[in-house]
């Protein structure tokens, strides 16, 4: 999770805390003297292109409640996709009288003490919340169809359930296997949707079925290349994605990267859609990387002439995922030591680090 030009402090563990991440970002800002360049407490209301290829940005300065308009040469959209929750439609949902939440709202497990909690969704958030809430809850009903989760071992008060078929009454949920369970809280760990409410229609960006278009390499607005998006891909090592994408775009800004013609960029995007379809990837997962992640980074590096991402980074990510699948309770105590750009040593928590497994 660190940027290539500023490694983590040696005191950090392999699995860092939220506080560590915040401290690291503050240290990064101080190291490169970024604070004078950043305007905080500004809510962007509208972004629209001008005739001279520049951008008018309208924003609210919240401390003074003043609306300000300024013109910029480049707009880089970095609002991410972990803010606007996706809530699935559940039959009978209006009957439920307990609390309904999204993983976005979770801060700590205190409010769930002695509760019966239903968690829907088996992505990273679903797994983490199940693990944390089960420390204090009466029981956790973990609703998922994930084959990986089916093999994982959780605390005794975690009950694995299939998908929810409907809500029966004020506290009862029915699952697709016909069983029913009572719960006090439902937490949806069902992901997020892309949202850019501040972009004027004249920007030419559309979000349709989870796909942002028209973009080249999931980054550059094909029609207006002085606008780009950082961090759209999902199932990625996020900070590494930000790092590589930003370096790529900076090469365009300084003139060392020459973009193909509009026609060629559109064709490249269509070729990728076709290629993904042939691999069985549904159209609404166009920005998903997963096993395609290293190839994506390598393609960006090759086109922009930047240093490729060391393969050890994603090797560690995959090794961590394997450890999570086999030891969900303890894998965050593992330690990884990087040897070089291709190799690392894994110290597993179970053996308290006296021995190591070299990969």
UniProtKB/TrEMBL annotation:
Single GO molecular function: NADP binding
Cofactor(s) needed by this chain: FAD
EC numbers on record: 1.-.-.-
Leader peptide range in chain numbering: none
Pfam families, per database record: FMO-like
Keyword Oxidoreductase found: yes
Keyword Oxidoreductase recorded: yes
Similarity field: Belongs to the FMO family.
Protein name: Flavin-containing monooxygenase
Organism encoding this protein: Callosobruchus maculatus (Southern cowpea weevil)
């Amino acid at each position: 999770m660190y940027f290539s030009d500023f490694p983590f402090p040696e005191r950090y563990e392999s699995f860092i805390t939220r506080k560590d991440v915040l401290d690291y970002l503050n240290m990064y800002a101080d190291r490169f003297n970024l604070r004078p360049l950043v305007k905080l407490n500004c809510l962007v209301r509208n972004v629209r292109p001008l005739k001279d290829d520049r951008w008018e940005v309208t924003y609210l300065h919240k401390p003074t409640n003043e609306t300000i308009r300024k013109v910029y040469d480049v707009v880089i959209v970095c609002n991410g996709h972990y803010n606007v929750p996706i809530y699935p439609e559940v039959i009978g949902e209006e009957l439920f009288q307990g609390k309904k939440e999204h993983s976005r709202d979770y801060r700590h497990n205190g409010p769930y003490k002695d509760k019966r909690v239903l968690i829907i969704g088996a992505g990273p958030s679903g797994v983490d919340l199940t693990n944390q809430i089960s420390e204090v809850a009466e029981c956790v009903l973990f609703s998922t169809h994930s084959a990986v989760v089916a093999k994982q071992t959780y605390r005794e008060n975690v009950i694995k359930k299939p998908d929810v078929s409907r809500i029966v009454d004020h506290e009862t949920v029915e699952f697709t296997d016909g069983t029913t369970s009572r719960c006090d809280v439902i937490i949806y760990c069902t992901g997020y949707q892309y949202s850019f409410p501040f972009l004027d229609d004249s920007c030419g960006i559309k979000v349709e079925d989870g796909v942002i278009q028209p973009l080249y390499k999931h980054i550059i607005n094909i029609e207006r290349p002085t606008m780009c998006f950082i961090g759209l891909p999902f199932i990625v090592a996020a900070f590494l994605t930000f790092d590589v994408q930003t370096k790529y775009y900076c090469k365009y800004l300084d003139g060392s990267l020459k973009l193909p013609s509009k026609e060629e960029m559109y064709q490249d995007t269509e070729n990728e859609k076709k290629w993904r379809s042939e691999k069985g990837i549904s159209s609404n997962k166009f920005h998903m990387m997963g096993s395609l992640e290293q190839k994506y980074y390598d393609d960006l590096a090759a086109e922009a002439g930047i240093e490729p991402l060391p393969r050890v980074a994603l090797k560690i990510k995959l090794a961590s995922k394997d450890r999570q699948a086999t030891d969900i309770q303890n894998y965050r105590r593992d330690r990884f030591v990087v040897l070089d750009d291709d190799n690392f040593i894994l110290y597993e928590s179970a053996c308290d680090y006296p021995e190591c497994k070299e990969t």
